[in-house]
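hey so i finally got around to running the thing on that chain from the lab meeting. sorry it took forever, my laptop kept dying and i had to restart like 3 times. anyway pasting the input first so we r on the same page abt which one it is
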Amino acid sequence: MTTTAVPTAPPRHEPAAAGPSLARLTAVELRKLADTRAGRWLLITIGLIAAVIVVVQLFVLDAPEQTFTAFFTPSLLPVGLLLPVLGILSITGEWSQRSALTTFALVPRRERVIVAKLAAVVLAALASVVVSLAVAAAGTLAASATGGAGTWTFDWQLLPHAAVFQVANVLMGAGFGLLLLNTPLAIVAYLLLPTVWSLLSAMISALREPARWLDTSLTMEPLLGAEVTGGQWGRLGVSLAVWMLLPLAAGLVRTMRREVS
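ok and heres what got predicted. didnt touch it at all, straight out
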C-alpha cells in the first residue's frame, strides 16, 4: 500500500492586537477622576473653594485693591492644598477599590497606565488654573459692578508660575500615592512629613539653611508672584527632586514589582 502525502498549509500568524493609545488611556484616567464619590466631590470642592475665596475678597478688600491679580493669586493656594489629594486618589484608587487586577490585565504594561494617570492629574492641575482665571474674571466683573476698582491688571508671567505651582503640587501627591499605594497612609504622610520638617526647621537653627532648599512651603512661595530669580528656581528644583521626583521614581519601581491579587 502506498500513502499519499497531503500538503498542509503553513500556519497563519495573526497580527497582535494593538493596545490602547496613551491618549485613550489618559482619557480613561480622566474619567476615573470623577467616577468615584470621593473624586467627584473633591473636584467640586476645588471649584467651590476658588469661588468662595473670590467672594470673600469682594467683602474684605478695599475697592482699589479689587483687581484681577488680587482675585487670582489667593485662589491658587487652597486649590494647591487639595490637588495633591486628587493625585493620591488617582493612584491608590486602583488598589483600594481592587480594580488593579482588571486594569493591569487589560494593559499589562504597567508603566503606560502610570504615565496615563500622571498625565491625567497634570491636565486636572492645569484645568484648576483655568478655573482660577475664570473665577478671578467673575470677581473682577462683580467688583466693577459694585463700585470696586475692577481693573484687569495682570502680569502674564504669573500664569506659567501658577501652572508650575499646581502641577508640582499634584505630582507630589501622586508620588506619595505611588510610593505607599494606600490612600489614608499616603494622605497622612503627605500632609505630615513636610509639616514636621517645617516645624523642625523653625525650631532648630541648624536646619534653617537646609530648609531654604528642602522646605517646599518656602521654595514654592515665589511661584505665587510674577518674579522668580535664578536662585529661587534652583532651590525649587532641589526641593522638588526630594519631595516629587524621588517618591515618583521609588513608587514606580514598587508599583511595577508589586504582586496584584
